[in-house]
Amino acid sequence: MAATKLMEVEDLKVRFKTENGYVSTVNGVTFSILEGETLAIVGESGSGKSVTSLALMGILPSNGEVYEGEMTFKDKDLRKLSKKEYRGLRGKEISMIFQEPMTALNPVFTIGFQLRETIILHFKMKKEQAHQRGIEMLQLVGIPDAEKVMTRFPHQLSGGMRQRVMIAIALSCNPSLLIADEPTTALDVTIQAQILTLMRNLKKNSNTSIMIITHDLGVVAEIADRVIVMYAGEVVEEAPVYELFENPMHPYTKGLMASIPKVHDVVDDLYSIEGTVPNPADMPAGCKFHPRCPLASAECTKIRPELKQMNEQHAVRCIKV
Amino acid sequence: MKYLIQNLLKTIPVFILISLIVFVLVRVTGDPVSLLLPETATDAERESLRESLGFNDPLYMQYLHYMSDVVRGDFGESLRYNTDALAIILERLPATLELAIASMIVAILIAIPLGILSAMKRNTFLDLFITGGAVLGKAMPSFWLGIMLILLLSVVFQIFPVSGRDSLMHLVLPAITLGTGIAAEMTRLIRSSMLEILGQDFVRTARSKGLREAVVVNIHAFRNALIPVVTIMALQTSTLIGGTLITETVFAWPGMGQLLVQAVNLRDMAVVQAATFLIAFFVILSNLLADLLYRLLDPRIKYN
Asked: Which parts of the chain span the membrane according to its record (chain B) (predicted)?
């Protein structure tokens, strides 16, 4: 591997304080993001993918905490940073865009205010300079009439436009890492394609790494270099995107692939993985996927599988492969 | 502008209804003539006074007379002071406005920091302490609080004057008395409004930008939390004015409230009617103001 590692996550564990004690939603996740690459994290709701990204940003809800593991960003141990150092990183080195463009922008401030705010904070620019940079950023993400949009309020823009604004804000300080949590899920299909194209083009022109969180394998195929499949707070498979689609190994990944309907096959029933992601407060013993797994045998209920390296870049957590 | 005129026109029936209710109420609750004349007055004397004041006309005639005067800006003469009722009230108005504004400032100064703090420290001992205090503040009758404050800070420690309106020092205790109840209500409102806002996506976005928590809470969250708070508080003007009646009486504050209480006791009809008219005017005005403020604070509301 030639590229250097930008972010390294080692055995990350996150738990939440609830009325019934601690509940762990991320259980020992290990992965890294290389400079300039796009890493997709795939999984159903409740697999811990969003919590992982919030943990990296250091903005877990107040009842959540990272209680084990390491997060290293550019040789900095994120868990040892002071609050102030972490703030200096957020929005500047690592920035984030969210799933809901409708609610992710503050409704009472203008687009200009929300753009300038980050730029002034991290670049110590004057208001006029920041305003100019804001306009440039809006133009960069393909917003027509950028100057006018600066004076608009979020509700005056469409969902796609708002997501573009979010991307403009996130990229305004030239971050090394952009975390995108389901950035296209809430958008119309045509707008989805536009946003993905935009992200791909922006990446081509900068060296920003992207960590994209999604449950949509179409998005993965569209944009990712490498993929991590998460299930119940664990990584169950990791592979380059081409390899994963060609040769999915984990039964869960296979299930996800099979759930995509194909145009030329006429079927009565669409394939779906039975059951749901287990409740973090009540995890099954052994392999966490075994209650839903078509290949499960007696030993799957006892042995907790390790992540096995199948080749240099492909790893799977399953005793059956 | 069109919106404003529309809303002003809508207030006309409100005024008519209020005037009618007050007009009837002051007439069915007692006879001013028996209070105006000495007990030794003969029936004939009473009757002639009634006749000269127009109390012997049918009620609807009296009302129509009254209203036709009101429309011309004449609220009649005070039976007690023998001068223009409106003039007496307007003379007292500045004192009441002064007290109301000072109380509002006291309330805001207490409620904003406590409300925000209690939302941020939700379900901690501090939060319990603040919300408990708010319940207590709301439950405490203002006449009782006023007397307690006088006892403690004017009689025992002699920091503030007991009553009257001569200096800024005189304003402190009445403003605290009246402000406490409003602060209690406002604190709870800000707390619940902040709690709702702090869970919103845009608060997380603000954090993800690397903003200081103080900026996230006091600017991004609070500016949104303020929308319902301002609206509801502006609608509370009637509570505020009702509060001045009691507070002014406790502290002998020479305002409209004190005058109104006296006028009711003396059946001084013209003064009672004019004062209620003025109060109604202020309540309606503040409702309009609330509406405008709401539109100002929330850009999502469109001006028509």
From this structure: 12-30, 99-120, 141-161, 167-184, 225-251, 271-294
